[in-house]
């Protein structure tokens, strides 16, 4: 059981003080009848940003203390060293694959092994414009409530997207829905031929994935003002650097920010 192993590895990593959670304070902000979750980040954010500035790939090689399990033939499951919640899992390709290239069936097969649990949200940032901080292919998993779920499933999201619902998810079904979304949203080149030897570069987008639905969102920018937005924000959960950003976001509006980050 992937999550059982993850909890054990996370407990060991926590005791060894090698996990560096980036969020501490959390509050609920009501907007248009939706209770958004906003967390204020702590000083570990600086350490994460410094790691990113080195240009080193943290997944090749990965930190053995972060290793959870091998997932299929092409992927490993790792703990996120800088989790937004605990545990926060990463499904990473063993070899380098560009984060902005089209996902394949192996990606979905590995990712879904962590999705088919209660209250698990999978999310994916395809490029820096969509909130990705690393270029190496990785999908993410976290246990969390989804404040925007009712709006998502009711079809009332105020921005472009493609939604698919499932009675019981499987990798093939999710993968072909994903390909349809990428085509319909214009995120892949026209008349593209799928060839495993030729990675296909895509325009920026996010995915939210649960055991019952998948949402694909085309992205225009990764920030409005000083607030950066990635896929997790489209669940209704936000991370901000400090109280000043918190005040700015609550005044500006969470839904407004999410809408303005989406490609028209």
Automatic annotation (TrEMBL):
- List the active-site residues: 138 (nucleophile)
Provide the ATP adenylyltransferase C-terminal domain boundaries: 156-263
What PANTHER family does the record point to?
AP-4-A PHOSPHORYLASE II (PTHR38420), PUTATIVE (AFU_ORTHOLOGUE AFUA_5G14690)-RELATED (PTHR38420:SF1)
BP terms from Gene Ontology: nucleotide metabolic process
State the InterPro entries in the record: Ap4A_phos1/2, Ap4A_phos1/2-like, Ap4A_phos1/2_N, ATP_adenylylTrfase_C, HIT-like_sf
Q: Which GO molecular function entries does the Swiss-Prot or TrEMBL record give?
A: ATP binding; ATP:ADP adenylyltransferase activity
Mind telling me which Pfam families this protein's record contains? Ap4A_phos_N, ATP_transf
Domain named Ap4A phosphorylase 1/2 N-terminal is located at 2-145
Its taxonomic placement starts with: Bacteria, Pseudomonadati, Pseudomonadota, Gammaproteobacteria, Vibrionales
What's the protein here called? Phosphorylase
């Amino acid at each position: 059981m992937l999550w059982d192993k993850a909890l054990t590895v996370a407990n060991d990593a926590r005791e060894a003080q090698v996990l560096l959670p980036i969020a501490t304070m959390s509050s609920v902000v009501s907007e248009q009848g939706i209770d958004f979750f906003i967390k204020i980040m702590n000083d570990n954010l600086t350490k994460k940003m410094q790691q990113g500035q080195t240009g080193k790939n943290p997944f090749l090689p990965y930190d053995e203390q972060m290793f959870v399990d091998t997932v299929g033939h092409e992927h490993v499951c790792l703990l996120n060293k800088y989790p937004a919640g605990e545990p926060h899992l990463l499904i990473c390709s063993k070899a380098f694959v560009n984060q902005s290239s089209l996902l394949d069936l192996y990606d979905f097969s590995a990712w879904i092994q962590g999705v088919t649990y209660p209250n698990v949200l999978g999310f994916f940032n395809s490029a820096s414009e969509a909130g990705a901080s690393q270029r190496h292919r990785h999908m993410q998993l976290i246990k969390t409530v989804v404040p925007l779920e009712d709006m998502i499933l009711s079809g009332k999201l105020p921005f472009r997207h493609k939604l698919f619902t499932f009675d019981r998810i499987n990798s093939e079904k999710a993968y072909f829905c994903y390909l349809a979304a990428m085509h319909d949203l214009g995120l892949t080149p026209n008349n593209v031929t799928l060839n495993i030897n030729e990675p296909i570069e895509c325009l920026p987008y996010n995915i939210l994935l649960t055991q019952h639905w998948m949402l694909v969102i085309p992205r225009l920018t990764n920030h409005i003002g000083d607030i950066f937005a990635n896929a997790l924000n489209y669940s209704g959960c936000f991370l901000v650097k400090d109280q000043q950003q918190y005040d700015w976001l609550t005044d500006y509006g969470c839904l407004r920010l999410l809408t303005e980050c989406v490609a028209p």
